[in-house]
Amino acid sequence: MTHTEILKKLKSLSDPAAVEGMARYGIRPGKAYGVRIPVLRKLAREIGADHRLAGRLFSSGVHEARILASMIDDPDRVTEEQMEKWVKAFDSWDVCDQCCMNLFRRTRFARAKVLEWSTRDEEFVKRAAFALAATLAVHDHDAPDRVFARFLSVIRGQATDERDYVKKAVNWALRQIGKRSLALNRAAIETAEEIARIDSRPARWIASDALKELTSDKVRERLEA
């Protein structure tokens, strides 16, 4: 399928009710058709991997085309320049998260970008740092615990950001790291307790929400199994 054919296909699948539903979840991109993720995944399987096509789809500015681009791109061909171009263009939390889950985590730059982007001011760039940390905690099976221990230091340092999309991603990363191993569970609980002592409303929320899950019997039993 060509770039033009794919955009026409996405438009034909438009669902105005779904677009309205997206807005209720804080997703308000400039141009969206309301095509659901399972439909995009099916379309991605039909298209197959195509780095050049992914770049054209992302550049279209269409919400669903950008998510689809993250599903068909080749992580081995992704450059730092491309990651910077895309992350600066993020205009919704779901495009940010989908790009991190589908593509960025599979690149050789992923771990470094967690550290680099966490210091940036742009809301979705900073969210991308912690979305990456969360998805790496789940999927980067070869990474030693020390990689995530370093991410915990970053989480501690960024826990006072009051922007919802940032603080929720910080919380997400903290919880996912704390569910990776027993050692990281203990380290994440300790980090959450340190964050809880910070005189900051977002920090207290991040810590309280994370501790509920990280100290639960369900998480401990799974890690000890």
Overview of this protein structure:
With 225 residues, this protein is mostly helical. The chain folds into 2 domains: 1-91; 109-225, Leucine-rich Repeat Variant (Alpha Horseshoe), CATH 1.25.10. The chain has helices spanning 3-12, 16-24, 37-47, 51-59, 63-72, 80-89, 93-102, 110-117, 123-139, 145-157, 164-178, 182-196, 201-214, 217-224. The protein starts with a helix and ends with a helix. The model has no long low-confidence stretch (mean pLDDT 95).
Q: Which keywords apply here?
A:
225 residues; Leucine-rich Repeat Variant; 14 helices; globular
What's a concise summary of this model?
The protein is mostly helical. It contains 14 helices and no strands.
**Span between termini:** 46 Å
Percentage of residues in DSSP E strands: under 5%
Helix content: over 70%
What structural class do you assign from the helix and strand content?
mainly alpha
Provide the number of structural domains.
Answer: 2
Could you name the ranges where pLDDT drops below 50 across 5 or more consecutive residues?
A: none
The CATH topology of the largest domain turns out to be Leucine-rich Repeat Variant
Overall 3D shape: globular
Number of strands: 0
Annotate the secondary structure layout:
Blueprint: H1 3-12, H2 16-24, H3 37-47, H4 51-59, H5 63-72, H6 80-89, H7 93-102, H8 110-117, H9 123-139, H10 145-157, H11 164-178, H12 182-196, H13 201-214, H14 217-224
Helix pairs in contact: 3-5, 4-5, 5-7, 7-9, 8-9, 9-11, 10-12, 11-12, 11-13, 12-13
